[in-house]
Design brief:
Blueprint (H helix, E strand, L loop, with lengths): L2 H19 L5 E2 L4 E2 L12 H19 L14 H6 L7 H10 L1
Antiparallel strand pairs: 1-2
Length: 103
Amino acid sequence: MSRIESEAKTVLLHRRQALRGRQAVPHDAVRGTVLADDHGPAEAPSEVVRRELAEIDEALGRIAEGRYGACLACGGPLGLQRLRAIPEARYCLGCSGHRIAED
């Protein structure tokens, strides 16, 4: 595993753990309240959080498969600065601009 993959994996695992920490815990059936730790009630994961968790898991999968750092559209490199800024990035700058224009 390369240094950038190792760094990305560490960042992604920490972000995933932090995001999962915000998810809801089971309800207390008797009281009808959300059970939580000392930090107050937990929130149900929003669509944004679920999407971010999925993107993190996909990036971790690409690292495990040896495909990390390559654009999913053109196959070119994503670039070191992009990967450090957005470790779950899937597209290079050129292809991500085209995807926005198409949507």
